[in-house]
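SEVERITY: medium
COMPONENT: batch folding queue
REPORTER: lab tech (J.R.)

DESCRIPTION
The queue accepted two submissions in a row. Attaching both inputs and their returned structure tokens so the on-call engineer can compare them side by side.

ATTACHMENT 1
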Amino acid sequence: MFIKKVKGNTFLVETSFQSIPFYKLEGGKIIMVDCGLIEEREGILNLFSMEGLKPAAVLATHAHVDHIGNAAYFQKEFGARIIMNEVEAAVANSIRGLKTTYSTLAATDIMKHFGNMVVEADEKIGMHEDHVEVLGADFRIIAVPGHSPGHIAVLTPDNVACIGDTLASCDVLGSSRMMYSFSISKDLESKRSLMDLDADKFVLSHKGAFDEIRSIIPANIKYFEDSADEVLSLIETPVGFEELLDRVIRHKGTKVASLYKYNRMERMTRPLLEFLIDTGRLRCEIVDNRLYYVK
């Protein structure tokens, strides 16, 4: 884990799992764009301590566990202001809100696995706002929904675009068996929209800082299109969700030995089915009180 300069006062914390950007103010205060997993908190805090840095604000791209996992902690321990898109803030402010994301889990299981995500935002960004001032620094906001309902990209005052999970590097795409998107149809629209984004540098949460992103956008789009085709190839005759999910798990060679891993595979598979329905390649039928997916 280390800190890397991107441009001007924009830096990133490079962990084994992700890149976490931050903008440095005077006196060692920093504005973080996302704040990482709880499992990486100790390493992040050690880095900040060595460099004399203090989280003064967290500007979240979206409300997923690797992006706001430490938000409540930084809010409590450092007084950091938490700033989120209004939709993402509604998801993160309670276990009931998180249930909209983890809909098939009981509240007790959500608390067990994701309770550290619960945080009340100090400031909420409206869906149509295009900038936000944080501790005197102006950040541009670009709506890129799809990976999550209210996902945003954040441009620091150095014109560094922090893309969050809208795009992944080609290395990450190549090593990932499956990736999640809340609405793939909308996500692909947002990915295409980034072709016109003018920035000096780009930071992808997964992973790294880049001079340009136009060359990797097609690969990101193709990844989800290919993933959907893969699932479609597993459907020859009408099939129910549980049977299809079992086929997907076996096809991917994934071992599912916990409720958390089962939920993860389920959450990644359903959007692919919805994308296939959206694009007219799949439909749902009810037969004898059971739902089947049919080509």
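ATTACHMENT 2
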Amino acid sequence: MDSDNPTSWWLATIGRTVVWARLRVREAGTAEVFDSDGNTLAYDSEDSARAALMDAEFVAYEGLDDDDAQQRGFALDELQPPQGDDDALRGLMIQKLPQRH
């Protein structure tokens, strides 16, 4: 991760499936979202990128607590954001969590 460009992870859930998105703020103040399809979407600001993610029912991973996770059907310790370069991330942006017994 480039420390000059703040990065945050966002997620949406569909049952036990977690869909990730990575928000990265660029030096010029613009932002980009790397989505679950492996596309990089450009935005004019961090605020507009965040608004687009929230409109798509994504929430910031770092803002989740145990109660938020429970409401979405998982425990916080069940997941962490994917890691790797963009090529490696393409296959990791959608995670299926094991079914609970």
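NOTES FROM REPORTER
DSSP finds three helices and six strands in the chain.
No errors were logged for either attachment.
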